Amino acid sequence: MVALSPSVLPQEAHKPWVARLTRGRLEIIRDVLDVCSQGATVSGIMDGCNMSFAQIKTYVPLLIRKGFLTVRREDRKDVGGAMREMTVYRTTNYGVVLLLALQNVQKILEPEKVATATTP
């Protein structure tokens, strides 16, 4: 096995303190399940999860196929306050179990906070 020197690695790869700027697949799934736990439209998911429509088209059908989300037509108020029928996505009981598991994994894997000493 050939060892790579830090100069061969990407600029920030050898700096463990640099925060990751993108979410992984499980984090996106966790966010969608969380937002949909109260019921959400596509735009509500996009806004609440900071996702693009392309990402919605990938993740929402997957979560529906796996039984983590349901789709229903419900009467809701639109932006102008008028009632109209909208497609609403809701987290199923099975989805809530997955959401809680993903939240627990996140808590376990969070980096420990280092206490800083203060001088009197």
Key words describing this protein structure:
single chain; 120 residues; alpha+beta; Arc Repressor Mutant, subunit A; elongated; disordered N terminus
The gist of it:
The chain is an alpha+beta fold. The protein contains four helices and two strands. Helix 1 crosses helix 2 and helix 1 crosses helix 4.
What does this structure look like?
The chain has 120 residues and is an alpha+beta fold. The protein has a domain at 25-103: Arc Repressor Mutant, subunit A, CATH 1.10.10. It contains four helices and two strands. It has helices spanning 25-36, 42-49, 53-65, 93-109, and strands spanning 69-77, 83-91. It has a two-stranded antiparallel sheet with strand order 1-2. The longest helix is centred in the last third of the chain and has 17 residues, at 93-109. The N and C termini lie far apart (51 Å).
Using the coordinates shown, work out and report the CATH topology of the domain at 25-103: Arc Repressor Mutant, subunit A
The run of helices and strands is HHHEEH
How does the helix and strand content classify structurally?
alpha+beta
The top level CATH class name of the domain at 25-103: Mainly Alpha
Look at the structure and give the mean pLDDT. 83
- Strand content bin: 15-25%
Estimate the helix proportion, in percent.
40-55%
- Count of distinct strands: 2
Low-confidence sequence ranges:
1-12
* CATH architecture descriptor text of the domain at 25-103: Orthogonal Bundle
What would the principal axes of the Cα set say about the shape? elongated
- Radius of gyration, CA atoms, in whole angstroms: 20 Å
- Main sheet makeup: 2 strands, antiparallel
With helices defined by DSSP (H or I, 4 residues minimum), what is the helix count? 4
Neighbour order of strands in the largest sheet: 1-2
**CATH homologous superfamily identity of the domain at 25-103:** Winged helix-like DNA-binding domain superfamily/Winged helix DNA-binding domain
Distance between the termini: 51 Å
